[in-house]
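Issue 218. Parser rejects a valid record. Input:
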Amino acid sequence: MKGIGKNLLTGNFDLLKLSLPVAMFEPRSYLEKLADPWVFPYFLDRAAETSDDPELRMKWVITYLVAGFHLALSRFQKPFNPILGETWQASLPDGSRVYLEQVSHHPPISVFQLIGKGGKYLFEGQSEPSVAYKTNGIKTAAKGHRALRFADGGIIEIQYPFYSIKGLLGGGAPRAEIGGKAVFTDAVNGLKAEVHFGKVEGAPAGSMLARSDAVQGKLMRMVTVGASGSDENSPVRSSIGKPPSSQAQASSLSWSGSMGFSKLSKSFNLLTTAPNSSSGSDDDDRNNIVWEPVASCTGNWLSFLDWEDDRFWTVSDDVPFHWQPDPDPLPSDSRFRADLAALAAGDVVEAQKAKEALENSQRADAKLRKLATSG
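Output the parser choked on:
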């Protein structure tokens, strides 16, 4: 409590750097918790099988992310911050495999690779969480590049929304919320989607869109206006709206070139347009670019997601898989941490001692690295 009070008074309240008592923790690492939502691989299988329909592929990718969000907030206990170099590896019953590693201490950065069965897809990226105290709760967002890469050459980049846990200091049971938006970009096919979380402004009272856990989004295709050789007033699909070449579709798995893709997506201003607008940004106007709505979704991240009249996910019907930790993991695996093992066994006192020992070891290592780099 003294540490929390000091940080509050100085305005330096970073929950990721504050040492908290072990009694507040669950016996898991953040690496393991990071994979909680990624347990609906059959949605990604369907996305992988729709190489000839990039719009349908985008719908299944969005469904995959929305369906898992409720699992990310199914527990309110804090996971252990990973130690630098810590890893976690596991698999799903369908053969999907996940690998995670903590590659930075401050700022905390976790990297991951989720490989689908048969190598149909790769979900890869990094997560750099930030946690802030907000009056009577906390707000957390995870920065970092994330992309789904398919064996046929298709790539969809993903930006996450933010999470909040409210009501931590009394006044009823705590509750979890998702806010902001998730952004999905398929630069090669000239597609983007923005999915907004929370009450929809102007929605009728009592309707599904007036709920705090509502979901609403639009999928849009980029088109050009007044292209050479066409009627100036007729929308013309951009050349980047073409599907991947047959050579790309036939290529074997290769996960290189993510930076090149990122530059491509930015060069076409794919993240600058509001989902309810087809006019785009000033840059879009100068380049004769407009965004054509092609599909919309509505739903609730706790229960279902519809694309127009078709239901793509229902929480009661679509059963999540469960991660099975690798039976022969690396020595750096989270399961070998003494503090997690002690807490899992119910020994809070020993877990606290082990946690403090690991934290002291990390601080000593950080000082040695600083000395080494300074000369």
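Fixed in the parser; the record now loads. The mean pLDDT is 81.
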